[in-house]
Structure formats: C-alpha cells, structure tokens
C-alpha cells in the first residue's frame, strides 16, 4: 500500500454533481502524485428519483436509513472515510455518522475554512430550499466558524430551488436561469453579502466566479479537494 486512504463517496444525488466529484478528486491526485496516479475510492450511487421523492414527501427517516445502508456498504468495502456528495443530505449527517465507525468529511467544514481564510464574515447562501431554510447547514457555519449566513428572499429561494430540481439535476443548463441566479446573487450582495456559497453541488454547473461581484465558494470543489487532502495526508 502507498499510504493513500480509500475515499468512500456517497453519490448519485445527483449523478451530475457526483461525476464532477470523481473528476475533481482524480485530477487533483494526478496533479499531486504524477500523470498515472488516481484516487483510491469507492462510490455508492443512488437513484436520485427515489431520493428526490422522499425529500419532497418529508420522509427524512427513510432517507436516513438509506444513507446508513450506503455508509455501511462502503465501510464493508474498505473505505477509510466518507464523503457525502451533496449539501442537502447533510441534514442527516448525524444519522449517517452514528451508523458507521468511519469519519465523515462534512461539506460545510472546508467551505467555512475557505471563507474564514478569505477574511469574510457575512456570506449569502444558495442551495435547495431544504438547505437554505433549515438550520443544519447555516447553523454549522455560524456556530463553528462565526459566520453570518444570509439567504435570499422567499421568491428567490423558490426560483433557486426550482432550477436545481427541474433543470440542473437533469443536466439542463439554461442561459435564462444563469441570468436569474446572477440577479439573486446581486440582491444578496446589495444586502451586505461579502461572498456567495454555492451550497448545492449542482449550482457550479450553472454559475461561477464570473457571475458574481464578490468571491464565490463552490462547495463541490472545496469538498472534493478536502477529500484529496485527507486521502493523501
């Protein structure tokens, strides 16, 4: 063994972003270790249609059971730590962690570290309605990193959520939706946001730094890079 830890990826939520995780992780390992190097990893990939239906039905207990099963399968397969390739399902991070003996690399932590490292205090959060409207994500950033996390107004939250579930998870990237997101970002900046968190792993498919007047924090990339750091540590 060469000392590289095995990453256990829980993906398929959606596979569009999970594919970017896989690419980013392997590109980074290759850049750090040489042209033929790649990551040692396992992936459990869900059928997102089933996950999405349970989310919108509010059946979080059933979702916790599914995450636990995935985590246990990766543990049996030899994973050394887990990466849950989605922001929304971190609502159940505690339940997943309790089900396995492996550490979970929480997506909010590398994001918070990057924001603090940039010297920012107030940030705007884009994500699914579940992520924007519940405390599991914002609360971790506020409590662990001392950040002030703002979310868009009600109409803007509905727009951001709709584009994620009706377009991005289906691989559709539309110019009109990009412009709509730019306008949401601009309103957050007008309200004092010093940075913008792309707090859904699909949003990076639609907007990036060029679409924002303030620094953008892409949770997909930050999480993937943190996974490589841990695997190669």
From TrEMBL:
Ranges in a coiled coil: none
Cross-referenced Pfam families: Asp_Glu_race
Organismal lineage: Bacteria, Pseudomonadati, Pseudomonadota, Alphaproteobacteria, Caulobacterales
SUPFAM superfamilies: Aspartate/glutamate racemase (SSF53681)
The name this protein goes by in its record: Aspartate racemase
Key words, A-Z: Isomerase
GO MF term set: amino-acid racemase activity
The UniProt record lists the keyword Isomerase: yes
PANTHER family listed in its UniProt record: ASPARTATE-GLUTAMATE RACEMASE FAMILY (PTHR21198:SF7), GLUTAMATE RACEMASE (PTHR21198)
